Amino acid sequence: MQALDIRPCTLDPRSETLRAEVRAFLSETLRDLPAAERARNWNGVDESFSRKLGARDWLGMTWPRRYGGHERSALERYVVLEELLAAGAPVNAHWIAERQSGPLLIRFSPDNLAPRICPGIARGETYIAIGMSEPDVGSDLAAVRTRADKVAGGWRVNGQKIWTTGAQRAQHMVTLLRTCPRDETNRHAGLSQFLVDLSAPGITIRPILNMLGEHDYNEVFLEDVFVPDHDVIGQLGDGWKQVGAELALERSGPERYLSSTQLYLEMLEVADPHDARQTVSLGRVAARYAALRQMSLGIAGMLARGESPAIAATLVKDQGSVLEQSMPDLAHELFGGLRTSGSPLDQTLHYITQTAPSFSLRGGTREILRGIIARGLGLR
User: Fold this and answer.
1) Is 289 exposed, middle or buried (0-12, 13-18, 19+ CB in 10 A)?
2) In whole angstroms, what is the distance from residue 81 CA to residue 253 CA?
3) Domain 130-238 belongs to what topology?
4) Is residue 338 predicted with pLDDT exceeding 60?
5) pLDDT tens digit string along 306-336?
6) Of 66-70, 134-138, 320-324, which one has max mean pLDDT?
7) Whose CB among 108, 113, 154, 361 lies 3.0–4.6 Å from 228's, allowing a Cys bridge?
8) What is the pLDDT of residue 185?
């Protein structure tokens, strides 16, 4: 069995100074944001808020300046993310683009796509969707069937993507495509990534409503969509390697254990300090948060040192989802479940109860993640 070493990481004074600045900004900017909106956490959308973050240089923080970035540390970025999540800020418009698409383009298309696309992401103006999942494929991304066939000057794309978050507002979609016939001896070969312009002819976006009747996800249909050669990301055939790097970024942030934070804060607000059961139960949650935060900070430290956090990030994502999904049950147990008073606790509990099932699906299902962890630790 291999060891997993997540070393403790301490934030420097510069990061803590930044925390105070971000906290003051959020206190002022979000002072009228109701509990029902804060409960959405990083699923909340406000494009004007994304642009405000860009104007404060809090997007693309670690990127080189040539890509619109600000060359700050991974730990400083971590502090900004923590404060945004703790405040329930509406960050979803830019979230995917800033978290994973920008770094993907900088790494694999540094001279072509990154200079064109990343400055807009850093300003909070450019949004990107991820076209990985397909119908009947589930978590087996190696089985994708959406094809890109070579034509003069580019590629002709046909197929369908599903569960595509934010495609209704994004300008582009990072899309995993099959560029060579499937090879059963090497299922990961023949896959490539393209940056698809979502305004191109032949694209149809249809909403998928969640349990709350809200429009977060989409089906994206691609029918004879032309993608020019200069919109291929990285090298043809390297799609699987690039997807792995992208998913590591998707699973490494504090959002993977802080999605239910607002519900916990509302429980603390109404808890009776003389009720031993409430005190013990909420204290145990605080201890779990503290442990996950130390692990998540350790991953931020790994990123700051240029190390790969793939397995460690997968572990935090898995255990973070367990904590997040336990929060509605705890609220029902301690405070009697959903009522009709419309209090901040009720509003928050109503939202989290219905959205919590998705926490163990997004970013990789629990079963797939645990298989990845077992393999990374040498257990299978």
Assistant:
1) middle
2) 8
3) Butyryl-CoA Dehydrogenase, subunit A; domain 2 (2.40.110)
4) no
5) 777 778 888 888 888 889 999 999 999 999 8
6) 66-70
7) 154
8) 67
Res 1 pLDDT > 60: no
Mean pLDDT of 123-145: 88
The active-site residue out of 246, 250, 266, 324 is 250
| pLDDT of 368 strictly over 80 | no
Q: Which amino acid is at 371?
A: G
Q: Is 83 a catalytic residue?
A: no
CATH number of 13-127: 1.10.540.10
Q: How far apart are CA 236 and CA 190, in angstroms?
A: 8
The alpha carbons of the chain give a radius of gyration, in whole angstroms, of: 21
According to DSSP, residue 235 is labeled S
- What are the boundaries of each domain within the chain? 13-127, 130-238, 244-376
What's CA 376's distance to the chain center, in Å? 22
Q: Residue 369's pLDDT is what?
A: 75
CATH topology for 244-376 is Butyryl-CoA Dehydrogenase, subunit A; domain 3 (1.20.140)
Tally of CB atoms within 10 A around 284: 11
